[in-house]
Specification:
CATH superfamily: Ribonuclease H-like superfamily/Ribonuclease H
Oligomer: single chain
Order of helices and strands: EHHEEHEHEHHHHE
Strand content: 15-25%
Number of domains: 1
Number of strands: 6
Radius of gyration: 18 Å
Length: 245
């Protein structure tokens, strides 16, 4: 596995929710299109959906997965740096209710960090979820795409993404392996107070606790960093050297 200099990797994770608390609050045109989408999903994956679930339950559970019907409420990023010969990491979050503002701030940070072709982005399933979602939501919000997110027309070696899911697959694309499972099999310590990813929309809309979501997102970035280090045969970072800002 070809390694990238650790200090030149930006690790990231996003948290998303449906655009509205209930489908009734959506614009009518989008609500109809969501129902069409849901019908298609039910036909393709009938075992995934419970017929007893209400329309609002399914909207709350599923809509945030799709950039056309969801929005980003948090992007957490992390870097590794060396201090006194030991690895440290620093994690920062861009979060809030105003998606355009947080995307603008994230884009500004990205432009400063990715000044050299040597720098890369890393995340778990970043190629199929995080990066496409961010790019789509930027366009929907009328924001220009930073060059690193613009993959159209680029050759594979010009795309600066490291994906821990892809690295773990070793060319096997039959199954999805969750970040939680990888931390378990590598015996990476994780906090026991995290919310589950399926609870993010409820925490956002029913409790209004965006700070809790940001902390959860930051911990996923830490987990991604630790898994990446395991995948390249490096020791993980000690808890005392992890800084959440």
């Amino acid at each position: 596995m070809q390694q990238t200099t650790l200090e030149k990797i930006l690790f990231l994770d996003i948290e998303t929710v449906p655009q509205e608390a209930t489908i009734k609050k959506m614009p009518e045109s989008l609500a109809h299109l969501w129902m069409d989408k849901l019908d298609t999903l039910k036909r393709r994956m009938p075992d995934r959906y419970d017929d007893d679930s209400s329309i609002d339950d399914l909207y709350r559970k599923e809509a945030g997965i799709y950039a056309e019907f969801g929005k980003i409420v948090c992007i957490s990023v992390g870097i590794i740096y060396l201090k006194d010969g030991e690895k440290h990491c620093r994690i920062k979050s861009f979060f809030g209710h105003d998606e355009k503002t947080l995307l603008t701030e994230f884009s500004g940070m990205l432009l400063k960090f990715m000044q050299s072709a040597e720098y890369q982005l890393c995340g778990h399933n970043i190629k199929e979820f995080d990066v496409p979602y961010i790019a789509r939501r930027m366009l929907i919000n009328g924001l220009p795409l930073p060059d690193v997110l613009q993959v159209a027309g680029k050759k594979p070696w010009e795309v600066k993404f490291l994906d821990t899911l892809e690295l773990w697959r070793f060319g096997d694309y039959k199954n999805y392996t969750s970040l939680k499972l990888l931390t378990a099999i590598f015996n990476i310590p994780t906090p026991k107070d995290d919310i589950d990813g399926s609870e993010v929309a409820t925490v956002y809309y029913e409790h209004g606790d965006i700070n809790r979501i940001a902390i959860y997102c930051q911990k996923d970035v830490v987990a991604t960093i630790q898994v990446y280090l395991k995948l390249i045969g490096e020791p993980i970072i000690q808890d005392k050297h992890i800084q959440l800002v």
